[in-house]
């Protein structure tokens, strides 16, 4: 099997802060990590490779710094990696990004299955994987907790409020996964050394002559972020201090009666 995994390098969400003056993300000093759901996608791909043979290719769209995240993916079992990078891709929303990723996959060619994390933790839209399948014209099986492949068919188990849904389709196809599908492995010193020896190829806009430049970057992005801000946390409530138990109960009952939450009298 030839499996492609889509990976996004994101800011560590536990370290994100908002500039109160500009309402934009403060990126300086914020470490970047592999999107956690994409690690689950990679682990699922590597497990399938171990069962059926083949190769696992990881792709990521981003600046040159994203090569560090791709190196990490190589140390976790991927066989090769591509960085999709070009100034023309800057400002792309999820629609434009999915189109660029799909075009890059068509450029790479020869794949049976695409696996993506169900969403990126910096944007939480969950749109890119599904949009890619539409651009590629292949079936999508989303939110998988188990993936099985037999011959030319992929079967996915999905957990729902009503139980487990089992869906099958012919390959090629695209799956998205969450954290419940597996526990990603940890890189070893040997795997890290192997990863450092693998060259990461770059794909630029000029490498894809058939790409529609009207559908990439800001020009090809129908979404516009008008404002980013941290919601103001308003503290509400009333403290009853310095009162005896009976006095506190009487004061609370009076307050609730005044707000028409409590009716009648306390006995």
Automatic annotation (TrEMBL):
Name of the protein this chain belongs to: Electron transfer flavoprotein small subunit
Coiled coil: none
Natural source organism: Diplocloster modestus
CDD domains in UniProt: ETF_beta
Residue stretches making up the Electron transfer flavoprotein alpha/beta-subunit N-terminal domain: 22-212
Record-linked InterPro entries: ETF_a/b_N (IPR014730), ETF_b (IPR012255), ETF_beta_N (IPR033948), Rossmann-like_a/b/a_fold (IPR014729)
One Pfam family named in its UniProt record: ETF
